[in-house]
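Hi everyone,

Forwarding the result from last night's run.
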Amino acid sequence: MRAGLLILLVAGAAAYQEKKDELSPCLSECIQPLAKMERSFAFIFNNFEKVCDSLERGAHCVMKCGGEDAQKFHQLTSFYRLYCIDYEEDLEPHVSCLARASQGSDKECKRRCAMKVEKQHEKEKKLKHACSSIECSTVCYYQLLSEECPNAQDVLLNVNLRQISEMASTLDPKVHGDLGDECRHIHDREYMRSCSIVAEEELPYSAHASLCNFPAGVPLPMC
């Protein structure tokens, strides 16, 4: 199951929690500090240096584990890597603003996009709900953080699109064919880009619904 790798907020931590029994002791030791961190944008942006230092220590640690573990670490920490390494220079001028804005964004996006999943629901239905919620959260965070920090809008979109591209590149084509529309959407770079852009526009609910797939009954961004 690759569901853990679908989580856009903290893809690595979520995947670690789901797959920790499959990881080698060496990799578990190296990734554990990151996996234990609070999974919220407020924590990440308010502790940006601490989070990035932890990623750097983990990357040095995993060098002793071997090539396969290093590759897994690279995949499981993709979210942190994008923010702390690939886009660090572009994000740095906006971290203070994002730290302030993320407090409210965390609460609001959880309210908009959280879905109640019953224990008796089938695995396929749970995954469908999870993917719909992820799509909603991705667009919601982009919209709210961009509103509060408009100068960070371009880099936030670039990070999201890069994350989507990386997820899609690790997905087995056979698995992709078996996914429902909700989960295929969050691996589709152009679809998610369109949803992110349309969320910035003053459009009626029906226009959003026709373009993007959000959980039924949940208020859409900008609605």
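The chain is about 70% helix and 0% strand.

Cheers,
N.
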